TrEMBL record:
Compositionally biased region (Polar residues): 165-178
Region (Disordered) location: 159-213
Upper classification of the organism: Bacteria, Bacillati, Actinomycetota, Actinomycetes, Kitasatosporales
Listed name of the protein: Small secreted protein
Compositional bias ranges of the Acidic residues kind: 191-213
Length: 213
């Protein structure tokens, strides 16, 4: 998924100076965006640990999805502004990569909207919602890998792999396992709260539903 970017960063080269120059212009600007994606991924993982309240998990995931969406949009701009790579069918390669990166950005913006609309007070529904989001993330990652696969094989590969900015991969953000942990974290946090003190009838019902889910 976010291995997507590295699909692009793993793109190759045709051993000539023009290809090296193009690769450098892309990779130097790409690395800060890749770091943003990795940082957002780490925040999702952190939110899923320690039995944090559902509302806190929601806030962390929402911010991370926005950060990733913005980063992918920036990656699309970087590739587009670099112009056509100096290889056969370079214009089409650039067009395809930019289109997919923008599509991924829009998808993460959609996930932010989805997580924002969840009700953290309804533990069972919140957990189910995060599971649905995890499924969407899995599909998103697969589609991204496929869309940029042509850039991995071809004349740009060697040139881009020479560049330091294209040698590190962003950690997959919001993987299915991480979001499942988010869902469990939300349930665990409410279960802990129930053990510490009595809640009203609505909260008790929500906790019971979460435990049954």
């Amino acid at each position: 998924m976010l291995a997507l970017t590295l699909t692009l960063t793993g793109c190759g080269s045709d051993d000539n100076a023009k290809a090296d120059e193009w690769a450098k212009s892309v990779c130097d600007k790409m690395q800060p965006e890749v770091e943003k994606i990795r940082s957002a991924s780490a925040s999702i993982t952190e939110a899923s640990q320690g039995g944090k309240p559902a509302a806190e998990v929601q806030q962390a995931d929402s911010a991370a999805f926005q950060e990733i969406s913005d980063a992918y949009s920036s990656l699309a701009t970087i590739v587009n502004d670099a112009g056509d790579p100096p290889v056969d069918n370079g214009a089409q390669l650039r067009q395809d990569a930019v289109g997919e990166l923008n599509s991924i950005s829009e998808s993460y913006a959609g996930l932010k909207t989805s997580v924002d609309e969840l009700n953290p007070d309804d533990v069972s529904a919140f957990s189910d919602g995060l599971k649905d989001i995890a499924g969407q993330l899995s599909t998103l990652g697969q589609s991204g890998d496929q869309a940029l696969s042509e850039l991995q094989s071809g004349d740009l590969r060697t040139a881009m792999l020479k560049q330091e900015g294209c040698q590190s991969s962003p950690a997959p953000s919001g993987s299915g396992s991480e979001n499942q942990e988010d869902a469990d974290a939300g349930k665990d946090a409410d279960a802990d709260a129930e053990g510490d003190e009595d809640t009203d009838g609505a909260d008790d019902a929500a906790d019971a539903d979460a435990d049954d889910a």
